[in-house]
Amino acid sequence: RVLFRSGAYLADGSEYDGRYGLSSRELEDFHRERFRILAQSDVDLLALETIPSLPEVEALTRLLAVEEGRWAWISFSCRDGRRLADGSPVADAARVCSRTPRIAGVGVNCMAPEHVAELLGELRSATSLPLLVYPNSGEEYDASRKAWTGASAVVDWGAASAAWVSAGASVVGGCCRVGPEQITEMRAHLVRG
């Protein structure tokens, strides 16, 4: 069993851009009790996902380091092919994770699929951990309106997933607005090999 958990949220849009106005230590305090409860649950792996800021990555890795025997993967929310949503280099976040015990893998999720290939390159340059990718449909979320905007990216999900695996991804999937049809397309393409 895997337990999925997202980044900090205040429902003010900061969960999408990482501008919480809090230090890494304050974010650690914010997450501490929830993290402890989740880490002591009966799951095999924690999925710490959609993390938009380097200070939050630092906070979560410190919390993981003190939970004996608990493993997690961490995936980041990114604004482009090189940076987390808060503007920090994704390679810096991957390096923080590489120095943390019991990180099962690092990756990116809930960002436009057009950025995946470049992000995989950035991640691979910074870590030897397994890589995972699960982008959204390419639409953008407008936190003030609480609605998705723009058009879905035109993606051949099967070919894209094969390219991502060739670029080093061990886990491939979809996030927001990527549905069963796209996941089926990815699986069929990857199984055919």
Largest sheet: 6 strands, parallel
The helix-and-strand class reads alpha/beta
Mean pLDDT: 91
First-residue to last-residue Cα separation? 27 Å
**Helix amount:** 25-40%
- Into which percentage range does the β-strand content fall? 15-25%
**Rg calc:** 16 Å
Separate helix tally: 7
Strand order of the largest sheet: 1-2-3-4-5-8
Can you write the helix and strand succession as a string?
Answer: EHHEHEHEHEEEHEH
Per DSSP E runs of 2 or more residues, the count of β-strands stands at 8
Compact description:
With 193 residues, the chain is of the alpha/beta class. It has helices at residues 14-17, 24-39, 54-66, 90-98, 116-126, 157-166, 180-192, and strands at residues 2-6, 45-51, 72-76, 103-109, 131-134, 140-142, 147-149, 169-172.
Overview of the structural elements:
- With 193 residues, the chain is α/β, with parallel strands linked by helices.
- The chain has 7 helices and 8 strands; from the N terminus they run E-H-H-E-H-E-H-E-H-E-E-E-H-E-H.
- The strands form 2 sheets. It has a 6-stranded parallel beta sheet, with helices on one face. The chain has a two-stranded antiparallel ribbon with strand order 6-7.
- Helix 3 runs parallel beside helix 4 (90-98) and helix 6 (157-166) crosses helix 7 (180-192).
- The protein starts with a strand and ends with a helix.
- The model has no long low-confidence stretch (mean pLDDT 91).
Q: Which terms would index this structure?
A:
7 helices; 193 residues; 20% strand; alpha/beta; globular
